[in-house]
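Box S1 | Example of a co-folding query
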Amino acid sequence: VEVAYIDALRGLSGDVCPHRSVIAPNRLETGSWDYLAALFESVKADPLEGLRGQLRKMTGRRHIFFAPSGRSAIAQVLSLLPGKEVVLPALTCPVVKSAVELADKSASYVDIDRNVLNATSLNFAPAMKPGRILIPTHLFGIATDIDRIQELANNTGCITVEDAAASFPAYLHGRMLGTYGDIGIISFENSKRIPSFRGAAIIVNNENVIDVRKLAEHRLVATTQGLPIRELLSSTIYNAGTTPWIYGRITLPRKLRFYMRQSWAEPRAKRNDATPDQFYSREFHPYQAALVSRVLRRGDVIRRHMAKLAAIYQDTFRNTTIETFVSSSCDTSGLLKFPIAFPHGERREILRLALRKGLVLDTNCERPLPAASELVSFPNARWAAENLLLLPMYRELSDKAAVQIASEVIEVQQLISKQVPLTRQSDTTQTDRIEAYR
Ligand SMILES: Cc1ncc(COP(=O)(O)O)c(C=O)c1O
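Box S1 (continued) | Returned holo structure for pyridoxal-5'-phosphate
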């Protein structure tokens, strides 16, 4: 989001905030009542064992291990696998690349399929060589054809670490994502469907590829255990700050001012994601397990709501030129976000126009993982990184709000398509571009 909005606001001055109620791009599925109730639940029984039992039931797997985060889980698993070469989709969460580096492996990339936004078996096939480790990923909760990838991996002597971090709980052919690869990873980080500040689970689907005893004990960096008090407070503030009234009047203006300041500043030195932080050093706490267990108990209600929101978006965009990425076989109840793309227009223009209408559109993975000089080999990843927009999906988003968002998206699209063909920044001044909106 930061990357896309800093770019979108570059060259603008003055107040660009609508200063009225605005629907936030995300809200947590956990609320104050959950935080309180989980405190009591976490002292009653062993919440880690309780959650392990729930996950065993959902996955049908015996070996489930908790980890500080999805990224640390991936690094931990990789470091115990013999292969040196790891094959990743060119578009995924950048922390996955850092996890590969931390595990002292070398990363290579395959392009994604433009229709499903993930690397499929067709993308992975040419990169499959004996001993390689593949990380098939289900971005935004959209399943890749992991069954076929696993079949090919078995035939070519590759090991798969299925990255289901952003797709828990989601299913393919009735089977939970994360249970197809040799090892599966699910995440409980706050931007995910079942948020518990941070944390992850490792699902061992093939005991022959990894030493489960080592996996239980091994950590890449020294870890500590503690009640996540700061995270509890910041999540409570986040929940308050994302109610539409406060979001539009306080949170969003502050964010926009920050993005604007950044857009004027010299580009910052790239943050080094490969430095282990709390995502590596804080153990998954029993309190977090109690929180996950609570939310999982209402998992069916959440999933039904997500399917409804997805259906609203799908139906509204059906006969429009807005591109969607959800096929008929997709488990829409497992979607984390609803990705769309406009047929024309640069994303920064779209974000600005949307903002003027009081619509804050989300973005993610704005930079493909390969080096800039290699990007010609990954046209789909590059296109997706530059063009995808994510519509909100969360339990507190009403059907009415989803209809409103979808209608506003269509209005923005109509405005964009009426505009003079957009020119590149080098061909026109920022002022010209801003004037064109008026
Ligand atoms: C596809 C994917 N993989 C891995 C991760 C890392 O998970 P975590 O934030 O729990 O470290 C993320 C996080 O956003 C993700 O989206």
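The longest helix spans residues 244-264. The pocket of pyridoxal-5'-phosphate is lined by residues 69-71, 92-93, 95-96, 137, 139, 163, 165-166, 187, 189, 191, 200, 279 (CB under 6 Å).
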